Amino acid sequence: MTLPAFEILHNDNPWPDTEGVTAWDFTLGGGGRHLIDAIITQDKPRYMLEIGCFLGASAKRWLSLDPNLKLIGVDSWSNWLVAQCRKYVGRPGLTRAYPDIKVQQRFAADVERQGPFPTAMANLRGFEDRFVPVRGTSPDCLPTIKATGFTPDLIYIDAGKKADDLNVCHQLWPNACITGDDWHWNRTKGYPMRKIVTNFAEQYGFHVTAEHATWVLNRN
Ligand SMILES: C[S@@+](CC[C@H](N)C(=O)[O-])C[C@H]1O[C@@H](n2cnc3c(N)ncnc32)[C@H](O)[C@@H]1O
Question: In this structure, which residue's CA is closest to atom 26 in ligand 1?
Answer without folding.
Answer: 54
